[in-house]
Amino acid sequence: MKRRNGPLFWIGMGALSLIFIGPLLLVLLTAFKSASESRTVPPTYFPSQPSLRAFDVLFFQDAASPVLRWFLNSMLAATMHAALVLVVCSLAGYALARMEFRFKNAIFTAIILTLFVPGFIFLMPNFLLLDKLGWLDQIWALVVPGAAGAFGVFFMRQFFLGLPKELEESARLDGASPFRTWRSIVLPNAKPALVTLGVLSYLANWNDFIWPIYVLFSPERLTLPAGLSRLQGAYTIDYPVVMAGAMLAAIPVLALYVFVQRYVIEGVASSGVKG
Amino acid sequence: MAVTTAQPTRPPSGATPTPGGRRSRGATSGIHGSRWTPYLFLSPFLLLFITFVAVPGVLGIWISLHDWDFLLPNKPFVGMQNYADLLDSGSPQFQPFWNGMKATAIFVVISVPFLVVLPLLLAILLNRKFPGRTFFRAVFFAPFVLGVAVVGLMWRYLLDPSFGMVNGLLGALGLPSDTAWTTEQPWAWISLAAVTVWWTIGFNAVIYLAGLADIPAEHYEAAEIDGATSWQKLRYITIPGLRPVLIFVVVTTVLASANMFGQSYLITKGGPGDSTRTAIMEITDLGLSQYRMGQASAMSYVLAVFLALVSLVNFWALREKKS
Fold first, then answer.
1. Do A95 and B137 touch (CB under 8 A)?
2. Of A65, A155, A185, B205, which is most buried by a Cβ count within 10 Å?
3. Entry pTM
4. Given an 8 Å threshold on Cβ–Cβ distance, is B148 in contact with A126?
């Protein structure tokens, strides 16, 4: 494989990059246009008179669409969800990786089998459960049910299986309890896996669409994706405002992604190879 | 209280087995701890799992056997009626359900080939050694971290038939600039498939890349010595080497496409007509907007059985060729 990459290769790479990043830049530029300029034919690409009007409308002008509140709701729900997934899955994954107990294989098999059950099966019954729990239109509807997924447990178990046992053995010889061993020996060594699972859970929750649009009702309870889809109202759409909202939802995850892209990509890659 | 006091001098329980029950639980230590320790570690997850996965999985079947209107106090048992209605062309559920199944099938058929092949080509490109490889990998993966709401809203604007920038750019290149990307067929399907490729190409590409890294470089070197062409190397080394990954990608991509909802909800709003109203849109609209959960649950189980059969066929078809 000594072949050199010629200019054609680099032109191709540049063109591909433009296909993936270009649309995001066009949308970002649209957010600085006036409503009328967003509808000119043929379209302009750079705003002729850049203004912050769309952001002003988005944040301050429409009391029925409390966008900052949606942003905070999304952030709070995603943070709580990721924290819950990490605690619950690292505990269960550790038991399944390192401990022997009755029904271990049955429990593990039951969890894994649900990886093959499509999620839409659970929409109606979980809606009814949330109703019984009084969690409809509450942040708990976003935080808790999704944390029961099999992926996190499977992912943590695989990681723990790959850790050398010696550290835990020596902690045991020092008389540490299982919980203490897990807390102060195992978890610090599981940082890469915890970061990966935490970020993937955060992203999934932040981006979730189908669930929040049906379990949230009050305008002030919505998440950003659920709220933004309602901005696309019945009357003519103020596109710069909608695009500004889309960027508000996109930029935090893109910024997070810039810092942790290695964890995200490797987490996704491992899900394919091991799964 | 005495039981919780640490006893540093006692031997580790694993080294000297003690008769069960003699020692208090708090004093037992070791990786295995007491016999309840594993269940304590598992209990938070199992509580969630039983509540939000195991129970709903069965509850859904129960709901589907009733005329279950969320807003009405009476939810009469109707047996298999909800399922029978889906096969009865005279029932009001028949047409919308099969229209949704058809839309879902069309989307799977037109999107999966591109979602399987284009990421493979991208992965082969990224598998070459060149400076900035990690950077480009990150760029191509970037749209995948966005949610479907962002992707749907932005492409609805970019694809607008009159003032959208896709038509604008095509016009600037001297190509037809009046394509009705979101309001006429087959353009609506093409748009939805293309947007999905743009959004998710990095996901499958990254999975292929992990698979490509496992193919020994010596295989390619040996082939080059034998004078193999690029096509032959792809056909006889890369694709056979990727077979397990390819099976995973095909099966998961079919399922993902069959779950399509947000793209047509936001970009085409199910239209033109109801041509892009997918099965998931039909189920959520009936069950979670109109609250007719019995019928919607029955539909979701029928769709799930279809998908299970399709997955089995995929496994079988991709395995067969091996012999």
1. no
2. B205
3. 0.87
4. no
